[in-house]
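Forgive a beginner's question, but would it be possible to get any protein sequence you like and the tokens describing how it folds?
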Amino acid sequence: MIDELPMTEELFREDATLLECEATVLAVDEAGVVLDRTVFYPLGGGQAGDAGGLELPDGRRLAVVDTRKHKERPGVIVHVMAPGFDASSLAPGTRLKACIDADRRRAHMRFHTATHLLCALVPHPVDGCSITAGYARLDFHMTEPLDKDTLSAGIASLVAGAHPVRHRWISEEELDANPGLVRSMSVQPPRGLGRVRVLEIEGVDLQPCGGTHVANTAHVGAVVVTKIEKKSAQTRRVVLGFAE
């Protein structure tokens, strides 16, 4: 029963560099596979879900095409399987290895960290966000124009500064006492767990974030602003891409 499933142990919250882990199957159905623990990040906070595979003891590898939060059970993560997956072919209790697509994860980490650098350069509330392996974008609530070259140069400077990137946990009470930490208008930090994860880029940015990031801004690499759009009278969209 879904109500009996425990929350998935989210290994990626503490170490985004983990690419695989041993896990036990808890449930299997047409929606996907639920494990007791995982390195797969589920779609959320603007960041796309991870893809990869589940390696079985008999040598089979089952493709995971996406990762989502369970629609009915908070804290449970569903590994969405490739079309044609036979739910009866995988039994609860099976031990396996969960392996993410390393290139996809690294792209997410680089882009997500880059969006924090962009937030430091554009001091306005964010009312939209999307982070994928191919691009990232932020929508800023503002009216003044932005310049691509200026922002690209600013990001390059922060990358070259090699600022350490780390996360820590604060209480919900601490967050309530510092409402200015929340930059996003559209996505609020999750409540009810008693604590909130915040990301700190030393000397650059500090805000709640549950996503995956690199450990130092130097690892972001060459990221540039590819497009700036006026989405509405009060919204400016900035799109990021890899320069190399």
User: Anything to note?
Assistant: The first strand starts at residue 9 and ends at 10. The chain has a mean pLDDT of 92.
